Amino acid sequence: MGKVSRYAGMARPSWAGIHGEIPDEKKVQMDKHRIGLIVTHSADDPERATLPFMLATVALTMGVEPFIVLQGEGVRLGVKGFAETVRADGLEPVEDLLAAALAAGHTIMVCSPCLTSRGLTEADLREGTFVGGAAKIVEAMDECSNFLTY
Fold this sequence. Notes:
CATH class: Alpha Beta
Strand order of the largest sheet: 4-3-2-1-5
Helix content: 25-40%
Structural class: alpha/beta
Number of strands: 5
CATH topology: Hypothetical Protein Ychn, Chain: A
Number of helices: 6
Radius of gyration: 15 Å
Strand content: 15-25%
Low-confidence stretches: 1-20, 26-30
């Protein structure tokens, strides 16, 4: 028996505000498709920080569930208030895209060693994020059809 997505059959009004409602047939397909997105940039490269969240938004409209990991400088996007400071010219604000992912019920993993090496703690993180390490990423890699790193 296949895994049942925690989102199957649920409406996602927060995503609808950005890119339209997910059709019911696509919600059912999410049980079968997941992609992983590793975000390794923040203010150091706003475009590369934004693009994976744009892909996550589009993935949902296509019935593909994203697994998002913040690593390297990307962990700063998980810090309360930081994503609001990152904006790539011509692209939607990363804060809006990240907030929409969280509002849709997704959680975003923050790399534990990357967080620690920057002097940050779990208390610094925004709601909807969780701290994880290599084992969780490997587990997700095994479940996802593809992993992309930005």
